[in-house]
Amino acid sequence: MKTLFSDERFRLCLEPIGPLETNVGFILDQKAHRLAVVDAPPNSWDFFQKHFPPSEWTLTQLFLTHGHWDHMADASHFADAQALLWAGERDALFFQHPEIMGAFGLKSPIIPCQVEHWAEEGECCEVFPSLSLRALHVPGHSPGSFAYVFPQILLAFVGDTLFAGGIGRSDLPGGDGERLLRSVREQLYTLPDETRIIPGHGPLSSILREKRHNPHVRA
What we know:
By secondary structure, this protein is α/β, with parallel strands linked by helices. The chain has a single domain (about 1-215), classed as 4-Layer Sandwich (Metallo-beta-lactamase, Chain A), CATH 3.60.15.10. The chain has helices spanning about 45-50, 70, 75-80, 90-95, 175-185, 205-215, and strands at about 1-5, 10-15, 20-30, 35-40, 60-65, 85, 115-120, 125-130, 130-135, 145-150, 155-160, 160-165, 165, 195-200, 205. The termini are far apart. The model has no long low-confidence stretch (mean pLDDT about 95).
């Protein structure tokens, strides 16, 4: 796992997991031995159990950037382990009826999951004491796509909305190319330039770098 942030209490780690190497975030409260997770692709539950055994760590939340299979396939396992699931309600159909993702070429069955908390635009959450998160609705790749921003440490999980030098596809069910561009310009590009972005796949970038160099959407 790659450590993106660490201080005397908190550590934020990243690991690409699953057949599409989805970037999964692990936010650790090292003093209280609690952790939250961002996204749950195939194989993420096995990885989690191996590295964070329940005898040593308490799982608190799972933040899902959107409802496509490569980000939520293992979500039901985290829910069974008592994680509070966050996601965008406009992607509810994907979570409740994942078989519809057969239209995406998915062959393996996925267990539906119950999302307990539907994120709202601009909503803030104290993940752990003194570490907060802000949810931004960024539709376009999917109707219920959300970005999760840690303003105190200038990090943002942006799902498949924005990539290093690219943007998410909008040709899947519920996608909207024009809405995707507005989400980037009006939501993500309004974050501080120094904010590091963690896309759903691939290398990290920053808001400033994308505003200057992304060929699909400039500031």
